[in-house]
């Protein structure tokens, strides 16, 4: 057995909430020392001693209600965030497809963003150029490829993002919900591409609300609930339990009222 591609050991991530400022900037400034103290202490635990491993070449699905900590976990794997406690080990070249449109510059065209992203992800400019045609074709964006990205709909942003990722060469691929925005045909194409990545032995962490997609793509799934691992097992078993909980109303409305920053 080779070492796991991803290892979380009792990882905790807290966010500092800035709600206090919303109470009025004047009040905030007037009581500055007290306000700052309160801000510091007003922590929200997004992940609470979370431990899991993803084997090399394995696909792990991450499911759970909004606010459960799924995106936080991916951002930690991608090293966009740092944990407050615990240990994270990631082996291999990570390619994150995080939130919709993240990493795209709104004023640049789709074509320019492909080049920018490719280069940021470690390709040489000429390597990106060589793949540009395939990427544009995959995206099905047609003439919109030469429009600024700020004019794109969510569906178009999702297409552009996935098309770039689909033509790069990651060892660890992180996908956060982006597939929910395209039309059915494009989603099916993305699913086929993800399965291709799987066959090539790419390690994947796939955040999705689409339980069918999680079962198709992932061997195992992790159900996060208010920052804790509620279940970690074969994807069939975990998605079935989650669906049962949703149907019973036990997995909804679990986001604490103060959970949104
Ligand atoms: N930058 C941030 N500052 C403060 N709180 C945040 C921040 N990002 C996320 N959170 C909070 O952390 C919790 C987990 O968020 P997230 O990881 O995005 O959950 P999920 O992806 O499962 O919906 C949520 O309650 C969210 O409001
Ligand atoms: Mg999220």
Tell me the layout of helices and strands:
Elements: E1 6-16, H1 19-22, H2 25-30, H3 32-41, E2 43-54, E3 59-63, H4 70-77, E4 85-90, E5 94-97, H5 110-120, H6 125-139, H7 154-166, E6 172-176, H8 184-199, E7 203-207, H9 211-217, E8 220-225, E9 228-234, H10 235-247
Parallel strand pairs: 3-7, 3-8, 5-6, 6-7
Antiparallel strand pairs: 1-2, 1-4, 8-9
Helix pairs in contact: 5-6, 6-7, 9-10
The site of magnesium ion has 2 residues, from helix 4.
Short description:
The protein is of the alpha/beta class and 261 residues long. 39% of the residues lie in helices and 23% in strands.
Q: What does this entry look like structurally?
A:
The protein is 39% helix and 23% strand. It has 261 residues and is α/β, with parallel strands linked by helices. It has ten helices and nine strands. The C terminus is likely disordered. The protein has a domain of 178 residues: P-loop containing nucleotide triphosphate hydrolases (Rossmann fold, 3-Layer(aba) Sandwich). Helix 8 links the parallel strand 6 and strand 7. It has a six-stranded mixed sheet with strand order 5-6-7-3-8-9, with helices on both faces. A three-stranded antiparallel sheet has the order 2-1-4. Helix 5 crosses helix 6, helix 6 packs across helix 7 and helix 9 packs antiparallel against helix 10. The protein is globular, with a radius of gyration of 20 Å.
């Amino acid at each position: 057995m080779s070492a796991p591609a991803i290892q979380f050991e009792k990882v905790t991530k807290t966010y500092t909430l800035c709600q206090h400022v919303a109470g009025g900037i004047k009040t905030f400034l007037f009581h500055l020392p007290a306000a700052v103290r309160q801000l510091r202490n007003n922590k929200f635990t997004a992940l609470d001693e979370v431990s899991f491993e993803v084997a090399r070449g394995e696909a792990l699905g991450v499911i759970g209600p909004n606010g459960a900590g799924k995106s936080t976990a991916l951002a930690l794997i991608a090293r966009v965030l740092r944990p407050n406690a615990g240990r994270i080990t990631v082996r291999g070249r990570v390619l994150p497809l995080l939130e919709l449109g993240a990493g795209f510059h709104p004023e640049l065209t789709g074509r320019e963003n492909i080049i920018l992203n490719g280069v940021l992800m470690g390709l040489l400019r000429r390597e990106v150029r060589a793949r540009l045609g395939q990427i544009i074709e995959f995206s099905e964006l047609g003439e919109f490829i030469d429009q600024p990205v700020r004019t794109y709909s969510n569906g178009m942003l999702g297409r552009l993002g996935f098309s770039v990722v689909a033509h790069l060469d990651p060892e660890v691929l992180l996908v956060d919900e982006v597939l929910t925005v395209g039309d059915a045909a494009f989603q099916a194409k993305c699913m086929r591409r993800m399965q291709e990545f799987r066959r090539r032995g790419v390690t994947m962490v796939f955040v999705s609300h689409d339980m069918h997609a999680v079962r198709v793509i992932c061997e195992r799934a992790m159900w996060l609930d208010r920052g804790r691992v509620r279940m970690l097992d074969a994807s069939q078993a975990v998605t079935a339990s989650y669906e049962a909980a949703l149907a019973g109303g036990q997995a909804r409305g679990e986001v604490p009222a103060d959970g949104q920053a």
